Each structure stands twice: as structure tokens, then as C-alpha cells.
Amino acid sequence: MLDVSNEVRAEIGDDEADRLLAGAHAPDAYDCTSCRTPGDSYREPTSTVLFIGDETAVLAFAHARCIPSQVVPVDEEQLLGAVRSISQAQGAAGSPGLSPAQAAVPAPAHAAPPRSQLAPPAAVADPGQQPAVLGVTCGLVLCGDTPYAALVVEPTGPVARPGSGSTEDEFLSLLTDHGFQPVQSVDRAPVRPLAGWSVLMAMGQLHAILQPSATGGSAAWWQAHQPLQVTDAWRSSVSRRSEVIMYAVPAGTIGRQPREDLLRLALDRAASHGILVAGMLPLAGT
User: Is the model's pLDDT at 156 over the cut of 90?
Assistant: First the structure.
């Protein structure tokens, strides 16, 4: 029940892809590289996920419900570190025949919401300023009595509409053009997922936020320079619901909040001032 996408096939070659589909190199059991729970390639749909560094490539497996078969570019040092960790684990277990693709890089828990300021840079309203960078914070947010995995996106400066020459910050209006909705109360989660948008999780870490591509398929709206580690609780919530709420605010609204309760207070303030938008994004779906 293995899926090898055309993208993965192009990287590994037809012969290797056919051998995988025939069961020659596919594992009976594996740890899903996305949700990190056990999987069985003979009993449930399974995706092949190819992680590619500058010189190294590792083929991993995932539940098809968690992540589609695809190629994921990663930092070479991170990939080599994963291979070393896998090799050490194999040596300790005395299982030299275990495929490196069956393990994933451990992601430690954090007491505070993980945050990373990452590319792509956005056009700024004042041409004399440095390009704004999108900051992404991960945290659990209660909507009613239900905890949701959430991403909060905040640029480092005002964002202008491309090609407009305007000096106004249009970050939120750009997102509402794509279907994101103004939030009046954080207690209410977005009702339906945004078509074509998704969150890419791989190896237990956050890699990208994807948006619909003009040429079909999806493209990275935001991509991590280095995969962002998330808490066990955040990853567990994503695994249960297969969706993430993405919130967005103008520059200077949220800032760096060391705890999830403070992050929630900042989101509530933004909603009360009418400067918070949100959308429900499926996990690695397009």
C-alpha cells in the first residue's frame, strides 16, 4: 500500500521506485516521519518521503493520512545528524539490518512556544526600510474547551502590496484576499480549512506553510531556513486533528511571548482591536 510520487520517482529513479512498490526495500513496520507513531506499509496507505540535503538523501516513510509522498529539502548538517543518530540507535539495538528510513530525528519539548524568524522576506511599505521577515510562533490555543495547534505569523515590519508603491501596511488584507477571516473571538476556531493551503510537518518538525500555486499544486508561502522544533503537546494535537490554525497579525502586535498563556492574551488583545485574521490549514494537504 505504498505511494511513490512522481517527484520522488524522479529523484530515486524508475528502477528503485519499482523495487519499492514491489516490496523489495519497503519496511513492513515503520515510525511515521510526521506523527512519529507506528505504521504498517502492508495494512495502511503509506507515503514515501525523500529528504535531500546538499550531498545526502534519506528515504523515509509516513502514514498517507499525515503527509503525501514528496521530496523535502533539508539542511545537510541536520540530515547527517539524523543519520548519525539512527546509526547509533541501530548499534545499541543490535539491528544492523534496520533501514535508516525507519527512524526520525528526536524533537525535544520546549517550555515556551517555539519561535523562528524566517524567510521569505516580504515587500515593505517604506522602500527605505529593510525587507520584512515573517516570524512564526507555535503554540496551543484553546477554542472553547478544545486545544488546537496554532501558528502565529507576524512580520518584522509593515508589508506593502507587491507592485503598489503604497506606504500602507497591507499584510492582513493580502491574507484576507486569500480567504483568511477576521477573528472576533479566539474562542471560536475557523469553521472550514482553506482550499490549497497546508502545513508541512516532516521528521517531527515544522518545515513550511504551503499556498496554492498559480501553475497548479502548491508552493511555499513560508519556508523554514532550519526546520522548527515543536513541543510534544503541539505535535500530538496536530496528529489527532490533522489541522492547524494559522493566525496572522501586523508587525509589532504579538512579539516574543515566553509562555502560551501570554501568547493567548496577546491574541485576545489583537482580536479586540480588529487586527487578527485566521484560517484553518490541513496538515500537509493540498
Answer: no
